[in-house]
Write a structure and sequence with these properties.
Elements lengths: L13 E3 L2 E3 L8 H4 L5 E6 L3 H11 L5 E8 L2 H11 L18 E3 L3 H5 L5 E4 L6 H10 L3 E4 L7 H17 L3 E3 L7 H11 L6 E10 L13 H7 L11 H4 L2 H11 L5 E7 L14 E7 L5 E8 L6 E8 L3 E3 L4 E3 L5 E4 L2 H4 L3 H15 L7 H20 L3 E2 H5 L39
Parallel strand pairs: 3-4, 3-6, 4-5, 6-7, 7-8, 9-12
Antiparallel strand pairs: 1-2, 9-13, 10-11, 10-17, 11-12, 13-14, 14-15, 15-16
Bound molecules: nicotinamide-adenine-dinucleotide (NAD).
């Protein structure tokens, strides 16, 4: 592959992340740093999703090479390296070139890995995303980053500011809201945009299931290490499950509405999530999100075993409705208007995210500007959390401009953590009616 990337300008445009972007030649470091067509990648956050994402990046058609890895913990980095260099992935061996001095651990690991790459993959727990995204943008790298992209309004503002910089530098940014890269969703949304169900007047979204893992406290761990290992249960790291998981469903309706709610009101709590190792997050949230035109998105997410499960989205329009998981559109009498054949036409959106990102980078195209939407859909989920935690109506403008910052002030294994357990190992939990964000 021999092309003049610097001069590459394309006239086509594509819709991504709900945003129409026109490709321009990019100014990312990739275009200056390599004499051949190798696209060098650094992985920041080598856990489950990071391992999957790097396999997907290396499985694209481009000449992608993993050159640096960073993780807070050595055992997590080693586990990932072992997995991707195992016989199961023998076909990727030539694409992995990470000597010991390109493996970094600790809180500053990202600072050492980012300069070595053209593209960075950000797959730590979301609390760190604003810091890592900002650093990658400042260094002029293309970026794949997982959702959510922050856990508090201060983090959202940081991502929005860096997103503007990324646009100015024409850095491709893909956010792992993979429904936007999934054939069925794209086809359904196209029909919505063409007017098949008229205007959306209400919507429902669900992420109800059993919940996820816990990582019990181990003797000798500092409080920082414990919270980092058991990250799902601490808001500064995870954002609560309304943010960590339910963002996917919320984002689908934001995509259709081509906008974000102006306020939220709801209820939630911890019915069964009690006892050790369950930190501070709720096990259920029910929220009415209201858009500027009065449309209501009814949202529910629940982590309770033995209850009915559903992960889906429904959009009800003036002329019909879209059931996203079933991939069909009907009128109000149930007459089919469109149905997408998932059996034969569905793709693997996690792979498509990387296929499209790396193809654009290799061609020198600027196509993906997902960060702003990633930040605003993350903010929608935080708005919901603020509504359920406080039991108050929370307005978007007030919340996003609140400056609320729940991150620790220092990142060190012996740091004095803002959130501490009591003598029994229990953490303070929000109480609707008592928890307050605004006076
Ligand atoms: N799009 C999806 O469907 C999807 C699926 C799974 C996870 N995710 C997202 O991916 C992210 C990671 O989730 P996961 O399941 O891989 O979690 P994980 O715990 O398996 O991996 C996270 C890794 O990040 C490391 N880490 C933590 N803080 C770090 C720091 N400051 N610097 C460097 N490394 C750090 C951890 O040690 C761990 O190895 C989350 O944001 C999650 O929401 C998205």
């Amino acid at each position: 592959m021999n092309f003049n990337r610097r001069d590459f300008v394309k006239s086509t445009s594509i819709i991504t992340g709900g945003i129409l972007t026109t490709p321009f030649s990019s100014e990312a470091s990739f275009f200056n740093s390599n004499s051949d067509d190798t696209i060098k990648v650094a992985l920041i956050g080598c856990g489950g999703r990071g391992t999957g994402a790097i396999i997907q990046a290396l499985s694209t058609k481009q000449n992608v090479k993993l050159v640096a890895m960073a993780d807070a913990f050595k055992d997590r980095l080693d586990g990932c390296f072992e997995q991707i260099t195992s016989d199961d992935f023998a076909h990727l061996k030539a694409k992995i070139d990470v000597p010991a001095d390109h493996k970094f651990t600790g809180f500053d690991a990202y600072q050492k890995a980012i300069p070595m790459a053209d593209v960075v993959i950000l797959t730590t727990p979301p609390g760190f995303r604003p810091i890592h995204f900002e650093a990658a943008v400042n260094a002029g790298k293309h970026i794949f980053m997982e959702k959510p992209v922050a856990t508090d309004p201060a983090g959202i503002q940081r991502v929005l500011a860096a997103a503007e910089k990324a646009k100015a530098k024409k850095l491709n940014v893909v956010v792992g809201l993979q429904r936007r890269y999934q054939n069925s969703y794209r086809e359904l949304m196209k029909r919505y945009q063409d007017g098949m169900i008229g205007d959306i007047v209400s919507a429902s979204v669900w992420w109800n299931n059993d919940g996820v893992w816990t990582k019990p406290r181990v003797a000798g761990q500092t409080e920082m290490e414990y919270q980092m290992r058991n990250w799902y249960y601490f808001n500064w790291l995870c954002g609560d499950h309304i943010t960590e998981q339910h963002i996917h469903n919320i984002d689908v309706i934001n995509w259709a509405k081509n906008g974000y709610p102006v306020k939220a009101r709801g209820t939630g709590g911890r019915e069964v999530r009690k006892g050790k190792d369950t930190g501070e997050i709720f096990d259920h949230h029910i929220v009415e999100f209201e858009y500027a035109d009065g449309t209501i998105m009814n949202s529910q997410c629940r982590h309770i075993k033995g209850t009915w499960a559903k992960v889906d989205e429904l959009a009800v329009g003036t002329k019909g409705k879209i059931q996203f998981d079933a991939a069909k559109i009907t009128d109000h009498k149930g007459k089919p208007l469109f149905s997408f054949d998932k059996k034969t036409k569905e793709n693997q959106p996690y792979q498509t995210e990387h296929d499209e990102l790396f193809a654009a980078i290799a061609k020198g195209e600027y196509k993906f500007a997902d960060a702003e939407n990633g930040a605003k859909s993350t903010m929608t989920s935080i708005l919901g959390r603020m509504a359920t935690y406080s039991g108050q109506v929370i307005e978007w403008d007030k919340a996003i401009n609140s400056g609320i910052d729940i991150m620790p002030k220092t990142f060190a294994w012996d740091a004095d953590m803002p959130l501490k357990p009591d003598a029994y190992g229990n953490y303070p939990v929000a109480t609707p009616g008592k928890t307050k964000y605004f006076s």
